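Fold description:
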Amino acid sequence: MGSERMEMRKRQMSTTQETPGAAQAQHSMGNRGSNACCFCWCCCCSCSCLTVRNQDEERARRTSHELQTEGIPNCEESPAPTLEEVNAWAQSFDKLMLTPAGRNAFREFLRTEFSEENMLFWMACEELKQESNKSVIEEKARLIYEDYISILSPKEVSLDSRVREVINRNMLEPSQHTFDDAQLQIYTLMHRDSYPRFMNSAIYKDLLRSLSEKSIEA
């Protein structure tokens, strides 16, 4: 009898020790099942998490691209340039900037050099000069300042401190000529810096060659 009681106690103690471990294992499995996306390392779960993450990143990239391109005007409408016009562009920068076709070609080149904002600013100043309504002038001047003068703008043009001071004074009472000094400085910059490279660029040479070949065929 004594030996049987001892055996029964051992079995009871063994059962009691095993029960908490089993309960803990079941509790752990239950938690893992309810939070499978967080703790499961299986392929299907990982793929679903990555899919959601990739979709979010793609959405962010699209939004960023839309913000960067928003508000950039299209090229000016103009007939195709003639061979005489394209040859005239090589004579002077003024002749290049005189026609919409010349400005469009030059603007296409500036885009490859990431300096298209110079042409956009110059064109915006030209549009401002055509306005006569006071409220429209004030609104356009404000937009030009925010887009091309403000240091916070991604399209800020390069101006010296003297010209910036002139603009800040002029903005107290905006007019058609608020940005005249800045426009001249950017025009000079494009003339001296970008124009010589444009004349040697593939954009200009390909256009000149294409028109020359058409002229010969005709």
